[in-house]
What does this fold into?
Amino acid sequence: MKNPLSRRSVIGRISAVVAGVLAAPAAKAAKAVTQKLLVSADAPKDYDPTKHKWLMAIDANRCIGCGLCAEACKKENRVPEGPYFRTWVERYIITKPKPGSGAARGETLVDCPNGGIGGINSYPEAPVLKEEIQHSFFVPKLCNLCKHSPCVQVCPVGATFDAPDGAVLIDPKYCIGCGFCIQACPYGCRFLSPVTKTAEKCTLCYHRITRGLKPACVEVCPTQARIFGDLKNPKPDDPLERFYRDNLVVTLKPHLGTEPRLLYAGIDKEVR
It folds into this structure.
């Protein structure tokens, strides 16, 4: 039987006791220690999550639908075979409006065979004639790194949590496989592993980024459509800074108030 005390409740109690006993400066230091306790076991022991703020951006103008990102993610994170993906690539086809309709565009068609693995050749022929297509493009999808994460809010045992460095993580030791987080995610970014019977999602390859490496999907992208960086430790000519400077940056489903930290450029309003 799992421990009835969740990670969240245990750490919350520790923080409350420490904060009540110690003076303000000491309590602040204790809070920093508590934050470090939240780091996934995938990180090295000397990693300090309070000194980083990770962020991912997607430039859909650069994505060619090769699917190498999804394939690399599967291998790197040992994602189960079948329809299970931590990241995937969707194809959007926007048709021309019907004559006389007065509309600016027609239908929005979306498909994603095998998560986009296999590239352009894995996609079936468009269900409309070429001359009927107004615009088409590819959109990589993954965890939206919400500031106000619905998945974190509904987890009954604190297995899903916000790390101080911006990552949204899952502790499989605490996960009971209830599926509440999967239902709560408005972006469809989670699944229940048929192997471990616990929830899985993109973790930005936490075992890599906490050791100074890029996420696997970023590493293999041939067109630099995926941009990754650390807001607290920007590099010279930082790619994230260029992304902000050169693009109209948007997030998915902003009306939900989740405040995603996954940023997009080059997508139409039809992307959901």
